[in-house]
Amino acid sequence: MKQTALDKFSQILVPIAGRLNNNRYLSVLRDAFMLSFPITIFGSIVVVLMNLPFLDLIMSAGSLEAFRHAVGNAPQATMGIMTVFIVFGIGYYLSKSYEVEGVFGGAIALASFMLLTPFLLTTDSGETVANVIPLDRLGAKGMFVGMITAFASAEIYRWIVHKELTIRMPAGVPPAVARSFTALIPVVITLTVFLLINIVVTQVLQTNLHDLIYKAVQEPLVGLGSGLVATLIAIFFIQILWFFGLHGQIIVNSVMDPIWNTLSLENLNTYTQTGTVPHIISKQFIETYTVGMGGTGMTLAVVFSLLWFMRSRQMKQVGKLAIGPGLFNVNEPVIFGLPIVMNPLILVPWILSPMVVTIVTYYAMSIGLVPPPTGVAVPWTVPIFINGIMATNSLAGGILQLVNLVIVFLIWFPFLKVIDRMNVKNESSEAQAGAMAQSGQSIAQ
């Protein structure tokens, strides 16, 4: 009966997940975020160095201020303008997916985004300064308008190219010159479209598209994504997709990353300015307190259980193979070796443990017991405890991970013991059968 129910659920879920995983726009969005990843890691390293808790003990107040001032533009030039990299990445990868010139697609997307960006800055005193770009427009606040603009501009650009509304140069013209002339008409038409949009919004509606989309789309979505319920739903789907052998992290993150990354940028901006963090849920919350505990599903505790408390040779062997990668949050050996995929005996702890840990972590941070992640990007391969400290800039962040590790262990242990007893019984039966076969051969001889 259980297998039948799983089969029916699989028949519904797997095709949907497959379509999401192969969706052109979600794949492009994922690749664009990965383009910005190494750049934001650099900015995050600098933020960590600027805020090491013992700096005030080894440096004078003046030296510490001078050090932070000297390196302070690194986070702004990387994480602070993350939307710029994502806009270019979307234009580039979407154009390449249509087999048109990717570099021009990225450049057009970026220029279109800039056409919609107000070159005005209002100071705290109410004074308006012209011909400057507010940094927040290139960061968290401009994230959604940037993504929408990048997708739209790249679609217009590739449509014009596919319609062959281009200038073709003679064969002897250098390739770089020929490509520039080929892109000329698509560039002019695409940028004209966004210039007209900006004119309508600014002159007729008396606002700018950044504020319009931020209030109508981004603010409600970010508010929803920062809640515990939406986070638990996302984690549930990550786990259930992995159960059926699909990479749940990639599929769900393709949808949720824009929201989680926006929350991370807002956290980082506020933290660097005031030392406080406005949101508990963010990209770093998800990565540090789910993936950062042995991989998807927080399986490092499972690996420890296999090594130390199970008697089955098969389970101990899986534990030995999985412990090395698991310490660096790679858990395919335990997912496919235990196995977790399509194993109804461990469906309950596989889904339950990350959801329980998420609830515990959320409330520990909401009551102030542990500080939330600051928005600093921590590579997902950093081992447990260290990544918790780096993400929260607090020893409490690492200690909370160890508490969570115990919670996962307690949830998984009864289910693993059931499987272990079954395996031990099967291994014993196989050994007895082998011994009897050898005895029979000896008698025959």
Key structural traits:
single chain, 445 residues, mainly alpha, two-stranded antiparallel sheet, 72% helix, 1% strand
Protein topology:
Elements: H1 2-21, H2 24-50, H3 55-58, H4 61-71, H5 73-78, H6 82-97, H7 102-115, E1 120-122, E2 128-130, H8 143-162, H9 175-204, H10 209-225, H11 228-243, H12 248-274, H13 283-289, H14 300-308, H15 313-327, H16 332-337, H17 347-366, H18 386-392, H19 395-444
Antiparallel strand pairs: 1-2
How would you classify the helix and strand content by structural class? Answer: mainly alpha
The number of distinct β-strands equals 2
Share in β-strands: under 5%
Q: CA-to-CA gap between the ends? A: 48 Å
Given as residue ranges, the uncertain stretches (5+ residues, pLDDT < 50) are none
- SS element count, helices: 19
Overall outline = globular
User: Which range best describes the helical content: under 10%, 10-25%, 25-40%, 40-55%, 55-70% or over 70%?
Assistant: over 70%
Sheet having the most strands: 2 strands, antiparallel
Descriptive notes:
- This protein has 445 residues and is an all-alpha fold.
- It has 2 domains: 2-225, no CATH class; 270-444, no CATH class.
- Helices cover 72% and strands 1% of the residues.
- It is built from 19 helices and 2 strands.
- The chain has helices spanning 2-21, 24-50, 55-58, 61-71, 73-78, 82-97, 102-115, 143-162, 175-204, 209-225, 228-243, 248-274, 283-289, 300-308, 313-327, 332-337, 347-366, 386-392, 395-444, and strands spanning 120-122, 128-130.
- Helix 2 packs antiparallel against helix 6 (82-97) and helix 11 packs antiparallel against helix 12.
- The radius of gyration is 27 Å and the shape is globular.
- The model has no long low-confidence stretch (mean pLDDT 86).
